[in-house]
Write a structure and sequence with these properties.
homodimer; mainly alpha; Farnesyl Diphosphate Synthase; 2 domains; 17 helices; 76% helix; Polyprenyl_synt_CS (chains A, B); Isoprenoid_synthase_dom_sf (chains A, B); Geranylgeranyl pyrophosphate synthase (chains A, B)
Amino acid sequence: MDFDADLPQHLERHLAAFLTEAGASVRAAQPAFGSGVDTLTGFVLGGGKRLRPTFAWWAWRGAGGDPHGPDAEGVLRAVASLELVQACALIHDDLIDSSDSRRGRPTVHVSYAREHRANGWLGAPETFGLAASVLIGDLALAWADDMFNSAPLPAATLDAARPAWRAMRTEVLAGQYLDVRTQATGDTSPEAALRVSRLKTAAYTVQRPLHLGAALAGADEQRIATLREFGDDLGVAFQLRDDLLGVFGDPSVTGKPAGDDLREGKRTLLVALGLQLAEDTEQHKLIADAIGADLADDEVDRVRRTLTEVGAVDAVEQRITALTGTALAALERASLAEPAATRLAELAELATQRTF
Amino acid sequence: MDFDADLPQHLERHLAAFLTEAGASVRAAQPAFGSGVDTLTGFVLGGGKRLRPTFAWWAWRGAGGDPHGPDAEGVLRAVASLELVQACALIHDDLIDSSDSRRGRPTVHVSYAREHRANGWLGAPETFGLAASVLIGDLALAWADDMFNSAPLPAATLDAARPAWRAMRTEVLAGQYLDVRTQATGDTSPEAALRVSRLKTAAYTVQRPLHLGAALAGADEQRIATLREFGDDLGVAFQLRDDLLGVFGDPSVTGKPAGDDLREGKRTLLVALGLQLAEDTEQHKLIADAIGADLADDEVDRVRRTLTEVGAVDAVEQRITALTGTALAALERASLAEPAATRLAELAELATQRTF
């Protein structure tokens, strides 16, 4: 088994095994919860780039983890559990944002509301959708811990990774909380946008998975700190690329409607810089009015042109380039073993230059 | 320090210590999340009967746990973490049920919606309340695991308790899921009501805490099975008392409006038996129409009289007596060390005979 070459497949094998194992005892005792378990299983196995466990795996490999050693399967299970944390984050986020679709399918709250409506059940379909999606998200979070804590690894190995595991789960919630508050208070500053990106993407998606993987390999404080520098800069760059794609991305490639981030009113650095650079002109008003508005396609085009004209797009592209540069320099300093160093550098390029 | 005599105080000491410790690092890194941490801390330390850790503690003591031994503080921390699971369950339940108040204070989603309204923030106050309460409940669930897993106990001791910990968290979610589905499908059978009680109260509130405590003391399978029998019967009896108080309780003692369970449309065994015993009479219609209706006080009185007349109240009281009897017989068979045996018997009486 070549874990390095077929990583996503092995991560999915562990996820499927855990979901089957955890699901079986619930189904036996509580058949009525079977549909809930099915929903979560379908969600987790139904897609996703497996980005967080991939970062964790390569940090483990780079810090000396042996893919042919006795810990390899245990590490796969421990890092795959990050996908269950992510399932909770996405299911609850979709509810909070009232999103209708995810990965081309109805979101969890929407599909439960539809089931309710189709059956003509009592009460409001939306309330049922809310209830079920809150509970399925909670189940994902509880099971993430169960999966992580039952990884077949020496107690000391899991203990070494616990600070990263703890920080990661608190930070993603802090990031979402901050995001919700920033949108509510209407803070349009570039600083607020960067704070949210640092927590939601840099810390949760890149930095802590790298920290977790390195800690599972017994890496020392110094190397972990250097890897976290790499992760912080890369994570912000990754989010900035996401922000650009959210406005300029080709719908046929991203799978999302054009200008989706604008309609959703996301407070991205791109928009924050656009407002700052436009100062008190007509362009400022055009951008400000577009946030959270139900824009027609030609209006999206106009906002795109404006963001480009005021220099916000260039500014974000320059930041991505600078952050990718400092990230790669930190990666170099972490002097990871090959092939991990090369693979992480490739991941960094991919994450910051992608068009999807 | 007399842990047995001052148990609630010691449980609260551990909760306060954990919340301060976990909160400090978040506050330092992310001041903006401080208000979220404050909300959770206030909620957890603001009240509650500490029932679940109390059952767990006495099971630990009864199975040989030494309150003067080296594990006592670690066990207090491990069992106190049940209160964080409960915080998640209550915060999310209040959101799902649209409850306005809890322990005489506004519920979490309501207090966030008020903060939003008072500040005139952007968007709908209710959406903000939903978002914040989902995230604060998630934080409680993540922190429950962090608290449990960082209890200073030998790895083998915590490992022995993990099956109970895992089952408990899945079962409370299964119970809430089943509850929501039962209300939606309008299943008014006594069987459905009992199934929900078994999961939401018997398993989660009594049986698994007992299992957890006994496992922490290294109890064998046989003793754990006997204690779980005690917990299952006691837990159902406890829920049936709760059902009676939800309809007949004195508001000045229960702190809830008279007939609150009727207005909320709860599918309790009391109501299910009322419907079954009334068959197809006027009384059946009166009970059926009362479920989930906005009843005036004299209408609540009429439903109370009807439930009594058809024999549902007597039937529930008889079940409580029978279940308490079989529970106490199982407790006897578990031959726990004193004073745990006496204290658990007292708790059983208190839980099934209470008026609050």
